[in-house]
Structures are given as C-alpha cells and as structure tokens.
Amino acid sequence: MFFEHYYVEPVICSLRFWTLTGRLEINAALVPGKREAAERGLSSLERALTATPFLGGHSFTIADIANYAYAHLSADCGLSLDSYPAAKEWVARVAKQIGPGHPIVPYGREARPA
Questions:
Q1: Handedness of CA 40, 31, 112, 81 (dihedral sign)
Q2: In the chain, N or C terminus with fewer CB closer than 10 Å?
Q3: Chain segment 24-68, per-residue pLDDT in tens
Q4: CATH number of this structure's domain 2-101, picked from the four choices 1.10.10.10, 1.20.1050.10, 2.40.50.140, 3.40.1440.10
C-alpha cells in the first residue's frame, strides 16, 4: 500500500489528471519529474511482477486493487505499459479478477482550469 501511495497515486494520477483536464502547461515545471517518477514506479512494478503473478505473491490482494486503480490508466498520460510486459500481463490478470462493469467516469467541465 505504501508503494501505491508514493509511486502510483501521486505521479500517474497527477499526470493523468493534468493531461485529461488541460493542466499540463500549468504544471510544466513538475511534469518531467512526475514522468521520471512514474517510469521508476512502473519499473518497480515490472521487477516485482516478473517473479510473482500478483503484488502480494501468488494471491490477489488489496495491494493489486490499489495499484491497479491508476496503473491500468497509465496510457491516458502517455505512459505505455508495452515496455513493461509483466506489468501489462498483471493488469489483465487483475482486470479478470475484478470483472467487467466498472466504468471510468470522465472528468467534468469543473475539473478544467478557468
């Protein structure tokens, strides 16, 4: 859970929000550092998931759900999982565990800068 709190939510989530709401330019000074941190986070996921099918080992856990929440949306901010095959396969495994029917609600107009 600490991993998600430090490497997934504050970087992938922020980059995704800024990308989808037109805030990349406003946050231009922070974007390179966020991208670098996101790549480090995805690399860490890749290393961990090369050894086991889930983050907690061989069983699906809350750690998988927490990290999946934004890791599976990384393409929304230009971070492809193609360079991280174990992480990409993990996303598919977690999606299968969670099941269909969980829509991603788009940001509304109120999320855009004034």
A1: negative
A2: C
A3: 999 999 999 999 999 999 999 999 999 999 999 999 999 999 899
A4: 1.20.1050.10
